[in-house]
């Protein structure tokens, strides 16, 4: 999706097109992180921890900012995708990273497609498999569009705004104890590190880490001269994710604090229904569908960006993306849903991808100034990145433990 692809000379100036693509990159990063798993994790931890979950949200947002600001800065200033950077630093490493992204993206996309089906079911009672097929057809149409870049940028922004607006309405309706949540965000009654590591992995793990940054390159906002715009873009993108998680948390917290018992089969849908009745359930369907289809788009786009180079033609990238979506759809229809062991396996791979890919980013920032076009990398940002990197090593270690347990089982 070249910047030229996104530009219609009759309606947009190159500068306007670039701004649109930059906004699209921010929301692509955010909406890729806001998937069915995002909604499930937030609901389950809110039910389990109550207001104390606010602390986990705050910590995860701070870590996410440190990671994404470094990823966007290095990728954006260098003008190279993460896999291209990795191959420049150690030949072949980029393809290893691409293989990990492919495995994780493939399995999680099955879950994303399943989420679109569940969303259409909650919205209008449509059979989940039919909903999944229709949703994939919409995603494919976006990538086959003659102005695919513009279509991609606009749909992720629109759906991102819709998700936030509807969730805000339910949050207001459920009347959450906001004061208690604010206190617990800095002085939690209890701390569960599993919740924090899960949130971090869910918002910057696997392909999600690079979704916005790779789209940023195609927007043309690259090079040292655009460092400030790149930095602000990464901050806004992760804050959109944080706002959505905080609002969803408050919506669920209001229901739980009111003494309601959620249906364990689908606690998120149950919470929305109890907060706003039948309309709440329909809203949940819209939110879940929007979260799922934008994640389908983000996973497909980013995975293919690791399998191609910037020299690859737009037609090649589009056809590969369509093929990837169709493969995931066939697997979804065959399996019926994404089996839990496969999702755990993919989650473990995402835990491995984060430290490997982030090591490449930090090494380029620290030792490969030539790849950054001579840019003097800010020391404070590098230090923040190293601290976050140490945490990614811990996450990777826990992921290995999980994969070993899954293999043994």
From TrEMBL:
**Superkingdom of the organism of origin:** Bacteria
Q: Which UniProt keywords apply?
A: Membrane, Transmembrane, Transmembrane helix
Segments crossing the lipid bilayer: 21-39, 51-72, 93-114, 126-144, 156-173, 193-213, 234-259, 279-307, 319-336, 342-365, 377-397
Q: Could you tell me the membrane topology recorded for this protein?
A: Multi-pass membrane protein
> Which InterPro entries does the record associate with it?
NRAMP_fam
Q: Name one Pfam family in it.
A: Nramp
Kindly list the GO molecular function terms attached to this UniProt entry.
metal ion transmembrane transporter activity
Does Membrane show up as a keyword for this record?
A: yes
Q: Which GO terms describe its cellular component?
A: membrane
Where in the cell does this protein reside? Membrane
Protein name, per record: Mn2+ and Fe2+ transporters of the NRAMP family
* Source species: Ornithinimicrobium tianjinense
Source taxonomy lineage?
Answer: Bacteria, Bacillati, Actinomycetota, Actinomycetes, Micrococcales
């Amino acid at each position: 999706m070249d910047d030229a692809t996104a530009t219609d000379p009759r309606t947009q100036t190159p500068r306007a097109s670039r701004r649109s693509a930059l906004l699209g990159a921010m929301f692509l990063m955010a909406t890729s992180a806001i998937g069915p798993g995002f909604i499930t994790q937030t609901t389950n931890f809110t039910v389990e921890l109550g207001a104390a979950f606010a602390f986990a949200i705050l910590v995860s947002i701070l870590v996410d900012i440190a990671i994404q600001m470094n990823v966007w800065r290095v990728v954006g200033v260098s003008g190279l995708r993460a896999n291209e950077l990795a191959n420049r630093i150690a030949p072949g490493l980029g393809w290893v990273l691409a293989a990990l992204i492919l495995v994780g993206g493939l399995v999680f996309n099955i879950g994303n497609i399943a989420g679109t089906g569940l969303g259409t079911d909650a919205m209008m009672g449509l059979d989940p498999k039919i909903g999944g097929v229709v949703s994939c057809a919409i995603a494919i149409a976006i990538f086959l569009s003659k102005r695919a870049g513009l279509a991609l940028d606009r749909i992720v922004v629109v759906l991102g705004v819709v998700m936030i607006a509807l969730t805000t309405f339910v949050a207001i309706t459920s009347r959450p104890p906001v004061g208690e949540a604010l206190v617990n965000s800095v002085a939690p009654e209890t701390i569960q590190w599993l919740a924090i590591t899960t949130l971090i992995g869910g918002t910057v793990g696997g392909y999600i880490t690079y979704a916005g940054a790779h789209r940023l390159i195609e927007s043309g906002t690259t090079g040292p001269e655009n460092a400030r715009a790149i930095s602000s873009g990464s901050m806004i993108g992760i804050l959109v994710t944080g706002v959505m998680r905080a609002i969803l948390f408050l919506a669920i917290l209001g229901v739980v604090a009111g003494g309601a018992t959620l249906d364990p089969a689908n606690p998120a849908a149950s919470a929305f229904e109890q907060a706003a009745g039948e309309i709440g359930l329909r809203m949940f369907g819209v939110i879940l569908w929007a979260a799922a289809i934008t994640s389908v788009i983000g996973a497909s786009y980013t995975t293919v960006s690791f399998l191609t180079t910037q020299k690859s033609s737009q037609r090649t990238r589009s056809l590969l993306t369509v093929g990837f979506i169709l493969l995931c759809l066939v697997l979804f229809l065959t399996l019926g849903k994404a089996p839990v062991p496969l999702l755990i396996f993919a989650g473990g791979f995402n835990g491995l991808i984060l430290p490997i890919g982030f090591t490449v980013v930090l090494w380029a920032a620290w030792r490969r100034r030539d790849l950054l076009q001579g840019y003097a990398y800010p020391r404070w940002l590098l230090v923040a990145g190293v601290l976050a990197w140490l945490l990614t090593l811990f996450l990777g270690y826990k992921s290995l433990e999980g994969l070993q347990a899954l293999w043994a089982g």
